[in-house]
Amino acid sequence: MKIARFSQLGFILAAAGSAVGLGNIWKFPYVAGEYGGGAFVLIYLITVIAIGFSVMIAEMLIGYMGRLDSVGSFEKLAPLHKKSWKYAGFMGFTGLLILSFYSVVIGWIFHYIAVSITTLPSTVSEAEQAFTQLLSSDVKTQFFYHTLAFIVITGIVLKGIKGGIEKINYILMPMLVLILGGMFLYASSLDAFSEAVSFMFNPDFSKITSEAIITAVGHAFFTLSLGMASILTYSASLPKQINLSKTSLIIVGLDTGIAIIAGLMLFTFLFEYGAEPSKGPGLVFISLPAVFYEMGSLGNVFAVLFFIGLAFAGLTSAISLLEPMVQYQIDRFDFSRMKSAFIAGGFFYLLGLVALLANINEYSELLTFGSKNVFDWIDFITASILLPLGGLLMSIFVGFIVPKTQLQAALKSSMSEFGFTLWYFSLRFIVPPALIVVMLNLMSIIGVELIMPMFGVAYLISAVVWLGSI
Prior knowledge:
Blueprint: H1 8-19, H2 22-34, H3 38-66, H4 70-77, H5 92-117, H6 124-136, H7 139-158, H8 160-188, H9 193-201, H10 210-224, H11 230-235, H12 244-272, H13 283-294, H14 297-333, H15 337-358, H16 361-364, E1 368-369, E2 372-373, H17 374-401, H18 404-411, H19 417-429, H20 431-446, H21 451-469
Antiparallel strand pairs: 1-2
């Protein structure tokens, strides 16, 4: 089935929307806070430059040259005797796993838009109590907003590439940049801005541990939307005449810039009003609401704008997480877009309900394995294992499986000969060893505790592959 084509600007906005998501605004500040600020940011930036940019071009190339869904593109580009590489395309399933808890978080954001309009908590302890109550006991509220997120995300994808994904990114991405830009300008006028700059850019090397490195590498892939076939699937709809390296650079630059801007803005607000920067996943739902309350009437305005911006970032990424498996079903089985969207959407919705219940007191013990519950395991496995694994598979496939002459032909208008040589060397001899070392180090840290959840993920992936074959 022919795939509708993005315009060049539409692709950049959609791909940037995929990359610029909750990872930049919700997750980046709290993980940076947990791992000492500057040390984590340094590793993150090195990963983005040395690994992320190379893998971004590789992932775009697979989609651009294949012109099919993720599985079909791998199958089309692989030599005849290496068609088993098509199974690497099922990395698109990682997006559905991420979307299962991502949708729950988007639901929290919808709830906090409503909270911001009405009454903000007056202290951090009050905010923490409200957020803890939401997560641990308020099933109805979470269920309602998770369902609303499912309806919005699936509804946009139902409209297709041009009418849904491209159109919504034309609206949401500029609005997100305006909201964050305005709040950043205000933050830069506060006294604590210099403290935030110091926290983020003066690395304390004693904070650089194996766990910090693994988290930073995984987070770089998470924020760039690499290793989950989102960029690959979007790239199948690229216009024929496009500069891939320049487009990749724009996307990586926008993504990294927004993560840094969001971090500086949030840490400025936190330091200005004496709040704690390492509150974990609840940072924007615990520390920030109390900070906004301290700002008076301006705080309510900022709170509403911030959570609307956060919702925009979440939705633009969420639709890119759903689209790969939707497009796979359309190409592979000739399903209608509606049928495909509801099958893939139904999966993330139901798994999201399990992830949601894992935080509820009544069910938490049943849904906890080792030191983490289902919600935390899905987050950890996808960000720290499956995304780097997806990046590793793509770098090996493009660097060693796809004929070099095909790559040179595809990139001849995008790179100089010297630029191609540097990129190709990085993809073959820098990216794979770096990712393998990180993943081996990860296994040595978590050990046996990961075995049961990994078996669960393997079972789910096997089930999807099996269902797709009948």
